[in-house]
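Sequence only, no structure available. Ideas?
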Amino acid sequence: MNSWFIIESEGEYLKAMARWQEVKLSKKGSDTFKEKKLLAKLISEYEESVSILPELDPVELIKIRMEDFGYKAADLAEVYGDKGTVSKVLNYKQPLSLSMIRKFSKLLRIPTDALVKEYKLQ
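Reply:
I predicted one. Tokens follow.
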């Protein structure tokens, strides 16, 4: 297990992200699982300190963060509980609900105010 410290540069961030990708499927209770949790916290703190979210509609922002974390629609459905609704939202057929905004904000580390912006449905 590597020794990790507060991430203070883009290089350290990229190294931490690469390691997180290596350990993201580790078994709960293992040392690598503990390392994964620590990396997630350090990465999140660094992203919050340097991140200025682009002016995107909430669905695009969700899709970008899904890609950042390697999540699929099924992962969002697991958190929200309804695969059909998640699919409709990601395809601009249904607006985000307050419940979705809360859950996706936490899961994807997106500020809620970025998810409550108005956007057009198709």
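Helices lie at 10-23, 31-50, 58-69, 73-80, 83-90, 98-108, 112-115.
Hope that gets you unstuck.
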